[in-house]
Design a protein that fits this description.
By secondary structure, the chain is of the alpha+beta class. The chain has helices at 38-48, 52-60, 108-114, 117-122, 125-138, 141-158, 164-196, 204-270, 285-306; strands at residues 3-7, 11-13, 29-34, 66-69, 74-82, 85-93, 97-102. The model has no long low-confidence stretch (mean pLDDT 82).
Length: 310
């Protein structure tokens, strides 16, 4: 069974879901589910009176972060990061309960909070919500810090080479940042609504705690935008480096062609084989022509060097 039930009175409850007394205002509950079955979701809907839409979202998954305000509860869709993988976590906040439903294995941060569940629930479920959302924000720090190292590494590589593998890595990081933006921005908006709009289920004291979490998300989104600007600048630098490299190649080929041009003219002239061309009868004619060709080549190289074209 994937359901675990906690309260501030007895820690972990082994009792069935139907035995919970939600009418007792002195008892707060935290219900934690991992990859719930259809039966467990149906039992939750019957026990707590959740709408069919919210339960359907816990069946289908793969939604964007959001918050929905219902008459007796709040429904939140959030995403934890563990490494580079995201884990969807849905939450139901009521007056004396908090329900967390995880698509896969519970994030490590929530497992750590489970160990403190009895103490956290003393301060009402909205305080537990603020702790979970704070852990949510911290789960993004590791990935953002890794971008800093990756971008520095790519910058060092770019000054030494314009290998296509560098471009591939740039696009990989760009895609990761776009995916991260899709998670961070909606959750930042969600935190704004929780922090600055009044909700009957969230006390003023815990709203202040949520504002700290909102500030945390602001810093995360600022860092993400900063890395996004850096990766775009890195892409522009790559294109500039590649263009400069191509210009150097074209410059070398052009100089080579210009040097070959007068030599081609000389060989074409003496390759006409007319009868009345006295130079063709000279004993040292070939040596003189080769010397002339060599001299012209040297003269043009000196000219290019003097003009700083080489």
């Amino acid at each position: 069974m994937s359901l675990k039930i906690f309260s501030q009175k007895s820690g972990v409850l082994v009792s069935d879901l139907q035995d919970l007394n939600l009418n007792d205002p002195e008892t707060n509950y935290w219900l934690s589910l991992e990859n719930p079955s259809e039966e467990e979701l149906n039992n939750l809907q019957k026990k707590f009176g959740f709408s069919e839409d919210t339960i359907a979202e816990c069946r289908d998954w793969e939604h964007y972060p959001k918050i929905e305000d219902y008459e007796n509860y709040l429904f939140l869709v959030t995403f934890f990061l563990e490494g580079s993988k995201s884990t969807e976590l849905n939450l139901f906040l009521g007056s004396n309960y908090l329900i967390t439903i995880c698509k896969n294995t519970l994030p490590v941060a929530l497992k750590n909070l489970e160990l403190r569940s009895k103490k956290l629930l003393i301060a009402k479920p909205d305080f537990l919500l603020s702790e979970i959302l704070d852990s949510l924000a911290e789960s993004y720090i590791g990935m953002l810090e890794s971008f800093d190292q990756k971008i520095d590494h790519l910058e060092n590589l770019l000054f030494r080479s314009t290998d296509e593998r560098i471009l591939k890595k740039i696009f990989e990081i760009k895609k990761q940042l776009v995916d991260l933006k899709r998670l961070l921005f909606p959750q930042q908006e969600m935190l704004f609504r929780l922090s600055f709009q009044e909700h009957d289920l969230i006390s003023e004291r815990n709203r202040l705690l949520l504002r700290n979490v909102y500030d945390h998300f602001n810093r995360l989104t600022y860092s993400m935008e900063s890395y996004r600007d850096s990766i775009f600048s890195l892409f522009d630098a790559y294109r500039s480096q590649a263009s400069n490299g191509m210009n150097r190649i074209m410059k070398t080929l052009t100089i080579f062609s210009v040097i070959i041009l007068p030599l081609t003219l000389l060989t074409s002239y003496y390759g006409m084989n007319f009868v009345f061309m006295p130079e063709l009868q000279w004993k040292n004619g070939p040596a003189l022509v080769l010397g002339l060709m060599f001299g012209v080549s040297i003269l043009m190289l000196v000219l290019f060097k003097w003009r700083k074209w080489l």
